[in-house]
Amino acid sequence: MGESNQSGGVPQQLSLGVSLRDDATFANFFQSRDEGEGLEGSNRQIVGLLRAFASGDNAEPCIYIWGESGSGVTHLLQAVCQGAESARRGFQYLPLADLIDSDPEGTVEGLEFLDLVCIDDLHLIEKRRNWQTTLFHLYNRLRDSGRQLLIGSRKSPRGLKLELADLQSRLQWALIFQLHPLSDDDKLAALRQRSKLRGFDLPEDVAHYILHRAPRDTRALFACLEQLDRASLQAQRKITIPFVKQVLNI
């Protein structure tokens, strides 16, 4: 079990078979350049708040971020967990997409003793009364013990169709942010910036080719980039349009 700061131990996650992506960090989070240069772009305020939340410098009890698939919700939740780990805080990341069929009470047992709990894909508890009841009680235990909760979802708290009205009202007490999907220009910039962070240059014409032929979801686009990086290292070849056609079959 992960240990709280107060115990003085090195925090780890519970044994739930859950892992974090190494590239899910604040440093490579990209949303939009509408408010100036930089990876954080128009969500600079959200990212700054979440950095402080991860380290424990922001005492907000509950933050709720939502947006459609590919908007960066999961990336930010995992980035917060990475930040909590660096700050030696006890934390647990719960991706409900992987855990929704497990026993909810057993899954969340003891989480109120950690500093931070991050629950992803909350929209999946619709029509799951057992999960709704369990998370309602977990919310109360975390709040009563002065711990923190971060929630990610594809729906706003008001947009969720929950049977448990008490949980819905609790969720609306949170500090709520909506993330918006990237424009095509932003996706191009994100692809090229991500490639630089991985240590190679992605030519603009190649980025355009990938964007217009690969799945347009940012998660899928970044997966393509990762696949190309591995293949180019193995083949010792530059990433060109013919190479993209060969590797990705697009």
TrEMBL record:
Keyword tRNA processing: no
GO BP of this protein: DNA replication initiation; negative regulation of DNA-templated DNA replication initiation
Domain of life: Bacteria
Domain called Chromosomal replication initiator protein DnaA ATPAse: residue spans: 54-176
Database matches in InterPro entries: Chromosome_initiator_DnaA-like, DnaA_dom, Hda, Hda_lid, P-loop_NTPase
Transferase is among the record's keywords: no
Record's keyword terms, sorted: DNA replication
Boundaries of every Hda lid domain copy: 184-248
Family affiliation: Belongs to the DnaA family.
Name listed for the protein in its UniProt record: DnaA regulatory inactivator Hda
